Amino acid sequence: MRNELALSLVGLFAVGQASAEFVNISTRGFVGAGDQKLIAGFVIDGSDSQKVMVGALGSSLDEFGVKNFLSDPMVTLYDSKGGVILQNDDWNNDPEVAATQHAPTGGNEAAAVVTLEPGEYTVHAEGVNGSEGIGLVLVHHLETIGGEPEPE
User: Fold this and answer.
1) Other beta carbons within 10 Å of 133
2) Model confidence over 86-97: pLDDT tens digits?
């Protein structure tokens, strides 16, 4: 068996739907140093702002039998021009994350809540101080801001 890096691209689209609601997206994979970040991209469509939680998990993956997890993940959210919107390491200092139903179980995992305008975004997971391991990058939709209220 050869030790090679594999890349994949997965897309999720709502086509021909009168309405479709994004709930969350996540992907798990190896997080390495430099260009070996784990990246998820997403688009906020329409005219309303959306409140989301972005995150990078590591130690909580142990609950699911994942070994060699990323011991100290960091998450960075970028806009479509490559500008940094936020960066987080250790979510437990954020009461807004704690108030969601999606807070990570590991205190040293990364998560942040942010309200975003319609546009294209990427969420990057990487290890603090170049640490490596299996990680998970995620985006949870929390709330639509403005427009019509969401159905319950």
Assistant:
1) 19
2) 999 998 868 999
